[in-house]
Amino acid sequence: MSQKIAFQGEPGAYSHEACREARPDMEPLPCRTFEDAIEAVRSGEADLAMLPVENSTYGRVADIHSMLPQSGLHIIDEAFVRVRIALMALPGTQLADITHAMSHTVLLGQCKTFLKDNGLQRITGADTAGSAKHVAEEGNPKIAALAAELAGEIYGLDVLARDIEDNKHNTTRFLIMSREADRTRRGANGMITSFVFQVRNIPAALYKAMGGFATNGVNMTKLESYMVDGSFTATQFYADIQGHPDDANVKLALDELGYFTTELEILGVYPAAKPR
Q: In what residue span(s) does the Prephenate dehydratase domain sit (predicted)?
């Protein structure tokens, strides 16, 4: 029986594309929500989960960072998918026939120039692949979908225009999650360690907590804060650093961080992807 990798969305979503690119030997398992994808791994229905965490144009994916510490899963890898957007419609339809384009609101916002130049009205859909599925099932030749070409393949739509996004560098970063942690050194581009922490309620705690990374020469590639349980005083931080916890300088930096935190949890140790 083939292993499965869970993702949020309909078949043909960009997360589905990430699964095919990063784990082509695994069977993609579509899930309704991020929580469902996480639960599929926790329950054993799936072996891995593919979760988007940030986009180069729109920033972090809402709620994902707060889900990670509570998921019980571990980050074992990362993947980057270049977001290429195609306009797709019913077979035989011409671009001149289209009056409306349907997609997730974020994707609609990434194709403003194309939509304006072609006089297309926007229709907000639940998600990208779901919009492609809707266009295929609705049968209205005046409505097209904005999605990955993979969605067009799945739902039998023709590509009328491709690579129509405003930002040609648009890329989404995904984390691959597993029930079991893997801290072995692997990959050809070094290691990334991701963790969350809460600082102690003392003056300049965050400044002092970060000092150990600077003095030990550890490169921090990401530091983000978010509220915990809706509290304005309880702030949790998510961080990515280059290196492995067993590296001497990383170990010293994490030890120093521990002096100024009330909670510190390593979410994963994994190889840095080549697109970095």
A: 4-179
Residue positions annotated with a catalytic role? 172, 174
pLDDT digits (tens, 9 = 90+) for 36-66: 999 999 999 999 999 999 998 888 887 788 8
Segments in 119-204 forming alpha helices (H): 128-138, 149-155
Residue 234: Cβ within 10 Å count: 12
DSSP symbols for 123-147 = EE-SSHHHHHHHHHHH--TTEEEEE
Among 275, 53, 60, 84, smallest CA distance to 170 is for 84
Q: How far is CA 221 from the centre of its chain?
A: 16
Distance between CA 28 and CA 19 in Å, rounded?
A: 6
Within 8 A by CB and 6+ apart from 224, the residues are 60, 65, 237, 238, 239
CA distances from 207 to 233, 248, 249, 257 (A): 17, 22, 18, 10
Within a 10 A sphere around the Cβ of 176, how many other Cβ atoms?
Answer: 22
Residues forming beta bridges with residue 162, ordered by sequence position:
86
pLDDT in tens, 123-163: 999 899 999 999 999 999 999 999 999 999 999 999 999 99
The Cα 179–Cα 193 span in angstroms is: 17
Sheet containing strand 143-147, strands side by side: 121-124, 100-103, 143-147, 86-89, 158-162
Q: Which residues contact 28 (CB under 8 A, 6 or more apart)?
A: 4, 5, 6, 7, 11, 16, 19, 20
